Amino acid sequence: MLIDAHCHINCLSQDKISDLVLLDNHIFIDSSINYSSSLDSLKLSHQHKSIYSALGFHPFEAEGFSQKTLNDYQALIDSQRKIVAIGEVGLDEKAKISLIEQEKVFISFIKLAKKNNLPLLIHNRLSSLRTLEILDSFFSSYEAIVFHCFSYSQDFLNKIVQKKGYTSFSLNILRKKPALLEALKACPLDNLLLETDSPYMKIGGCDSTPRDIDKVYSFCSEIKSLDQSSLEEKVQA
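Above: the chain sequence. Below: its structure as tokens.
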């Protein structure tokens, strides 16, 4: 079983979606970035047995956040069964809105996840330590937290693993940056997830699709010196 722990099927064309759901032995966690894409994701998960939804609100969307946003998301959670996580949510120093305002939104979605006993998929770009500080104020353990598209050092990975959190490695491992490969080698299988982050993560400058999850598994099995079938058995979502 190949599990893509984080992708964005809801923004793909219908042709690509139709092609994707024909695949056997695949599960896709479709992550949304705002309320509109959350609705699209839920429609897809209702239509296709291989697709599950994670309801997200990307930091780039934070300017449009209000109490109504939370109410709308809670209504979706109350009405759907194939929601498996809240995310992606987090911090991004490239967003137009200030980090202080982003933190308010992030904390609101942390509380939403805790209220509904749902895991969190974390978007974390350039604000690593602050992200951990915020999470530490709500969680003594990271057992229900996934750091999506992991792209940091082994030291940062160790901080996550020590609290029993998950790191999800994406197509970016194919770029073979030494620090990232060292982190992947060091990541215990019990804390490892794999994803494409498709179509936002590109391969050699070209668009990707969730079909490319096989490339992630293949490369990871090589780095881990583990046959792919054994890796598939170990990687969870």
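The longest strand covers residues 83-92.
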